[in-house]
Amino acid sequence: MRETLVKTEEFKDSPLGEVPKDWEVVNLGSVLTVLYRYPTYYGIQYVETGVPEVRGELILDDGYLDNRLALYRYISESTASRFHKVRLEPGDFVLSVRGTMGKVAMVATELKGAVITANLIRLQFNQSLVSPQWARHFLLSNIFQDQLDLETSATTIKTIQAPALSSMLLRLPSFQEQEHIAEILDTMDEAIAHTSSLIAKLKQMKAGLLHDLLTRGLDENGELRDAIAHPEQFKDSPLGRIPKGWEAKPLEAIADLQVGFAFKSEWFQEHEGIRLLRGENVGYGSPDWSETRTLPSKMYPNYREYELVAGDIIIGMDRTFTKSGFKISVLEPSDVPALLVQRVGRFLPIGCDRQFLKVLLNSQPYHAALLAQQKGMDIPHLSKSEILEPLVAVPPVEEQRRIATIIDTYDTRIRTEEAYCDKLKLQKQGLMHDLLTGQVRVTSVKPVKEDSSQIAALTTASPNAYLHLSHHSYQ
């Protein structure tokens, strides 16, 4: 980004603390032309086509509404006409004001005339005083969200009424500076969106390649085998056609499973000691330590056979299945030391490459086989035998290593982009606070737009075609 921001010391006192001398502090209601909550209603009849109804679950984290119209419910025009005060206009905002507080979205042109449900409130800014794009960033900011939280902290079910919302204070720059602030923050949003799109494409590419690698494998030249051009390189198996030299085996032929110890809950503590990796801590790809329990350090030597090490592959042994599959995590150095607890299993390779085993266990065919064999079961947890029972296609060890290396290349790239995206989000959060409080002022804005051509033309033609897409940058 070009140098467009300057520090300032020209502040004045206000009810919100120091603000720039040329800014105003006003009530939110004074810059709104509409602030209205949908009346409670019952018995609304939905129709196949008509006026879309905006619900809280359609509000996205970026401050926009989901544009997939198939997700909307529809009411008739005659019904909608009874509630004309909540007929939305482009540039309006909807804000969730009950339950999940503070979700906010700006209304796009294609939703002109839509209505909102009772848990939302409609805000329409006076667009001669407030830029809608600036308003979007303000309503998404921690500055506004923290104020909203303070207003509702005393209630059992979080809710806010229109008068309380109207009385909330905000710092108001000139309209021109609002637009400059919005341009800068929009540019950051574009960078985040482009990076998120790239991550999604990389994951899609990896999924397609992973399927090919686990069904076709790599020939002596490191290329995917072609079952159509070279059928002689394949053979029949219980899993369908697989490369010659591969074997269809139950997972127990290449891995064992160690089940954790049943530690007594009264031994648990929350701070000092050795972490216990429980079912709640197993995540999709990596552990989740947000709820940590520990074992007193003096007891640790008695359970060293359950000590986990970096690189261990673990599985949560409950039957919970989501679109991400069953919970399987790989431990990093930061995850240890830790001890294995009951209803969590650790995979132990048997004559199998550990990295290939990780790839295999995270594949869709393994999760599908694990899901298929438990239909009709009402036992809440998977057994060791169930986890090790599914058939898998097993290549020779050397080919396992080559497959794992290729997938690791993709995983490394995805992690790099995810870390970059997280960095951008943190940068935007800090910059948003400084710009919206006036701690940093805008003098002129010439944001450099991203070149999105880097994200186009991705291909999975060859597993060795590494991705050379550069990081998004500003000059």
Count the helices. How many? 9
Helix content: 25-40%
Q: Using the CA coordinates, give the radius of gyration.
A: 28 Å
Strand content: 15-25%
- Gap between N and C termini: 5 Å
Q: Report the strand count.
A: 25
* Poorly predicted regions: 447-475
Cross-sheet strand order for the largest sheet: 5-12-9-10
Which word captures the global form? elongated
Question: Taking all residues together, what is the mean pLDDT?
Answer: 87
Structural class: alpha+beta
**How does the major sheet shape up?**
4 strands, antiparallel
Short description:
With 475 residues, the chain is an alpha+beta fold. It is built from nine helices and 25 strands.
Give the arrangement of secondary structure elements.
Layout: E1 5-7, E2 11-12, E3 19-20, E4 24-27, E5 32-37, E6 46-47, E7 51-54, E8 73-75, H1 77-80, E9 93-96, E10 104-106, E11 115-116, E12 120-125, H2 132-140, H3 142-152, H4 162-166, E13 169-172, H5 175-215, E14 234-235, E15 242-243, E16 247-250, E17 255-259, E18 274-277, E19 293-295, E20 313-316, E21 328-330, E22 338-340, E23 344-349, H6 354-361, H7 364-372, H8 384-388, E24 391-394, H9 397-437, E25 440-442
Parallel strand pairs: 7-11, 18-22
Antiparallel strand pairs: 1-25, 2-3, 4-13, 5-12, 6-8, 7-8, 9-10, 9-12, 14-15, 16-24, 17-23, 18-19, 20-21, 20-23
